[in-house]
Design brief:
The chain has eight helices and six strands. The chain is of the alpha+beta class and 154 residues long. The protein has two domains: 63 residues, Winged helix-like DNA-binding domain superfamily/Winged helix DNA-binding domain (Arc Repressor Mutant, subunit A, Orthogonal Bundle), CATH 1.10.10.10; 79 residues, Arc Repressor Mutant, subunit A, CATH 1.10.10.
């Protein structure tokens, strides 16, 4: 089953910045406490950062990896390029990009993409996960989405 990041890119970046403030290692409960968040509200950002290999989770501690430090040290343009590299390496996005690129005009409809993913992504939630795919795809410059005609290009 394929995994998708299910947190806003900005939330994940915020988590990385907090980790950096804590010298790169801190208990996840401490982070939630400091941010006045429920642990359940923080976990999607943790999962996204871990999925992209920016952090490691060890016995409840969040550890900022070198890839996360490198990402934080860059400006917005370079961050987009790095995000492109890391998101493009996720199996779910590899499958999506390959599927789109193999279609006429490198374009698919929302329905065609959803049909592909329904059997592939663990606990697939059609509307929510489609939004995550589009957000991460756009932010990483991997996908273009035209909401007027529900067409996705790679």
């Amino acid at each position: 089953m394929l995994a998708l990041p299910r947190a806003h890119v900005g939330q994940m970046i915020g988590l990385l910045e907090v980790l950096e403030d804590f010298k790169g290692r801190v208990d996840v409960a401490k982070v939630a406490d400091d941010l006045i968040l429920e642990l359940d509200d923080l976990l999607p950002a943790v999962d996204a950062a871990e999925l992209l290999s920016f952090i490691e989770v060890d016995s409840g501690d969040l550890i900022l990896k070198e890839t996360g430090r490198e990402f934080l040290s860059k400006g917005p343009k370079v961050r987009k390029k790095l995000l492109n590299k890391y998101v493009a390496n996720l199996e779910s996005f590899k499958k999506i990009i390959n599927f789109i690129r193999n279609q006429e005009n490198c374009e698919v409809s929302k329905e065609e993409l959803l049909d592909l993913l329904k059997g592939e992504v663990a606990d697939f939630d059609v509307e929510s996960d489609f939004s995550w795919i589009i957000e991460w795809g756009r932010d990483s410059l991997l996908l273009k989405y035209d909401s007027d005609n529900d067409k996705i290009r790679a």
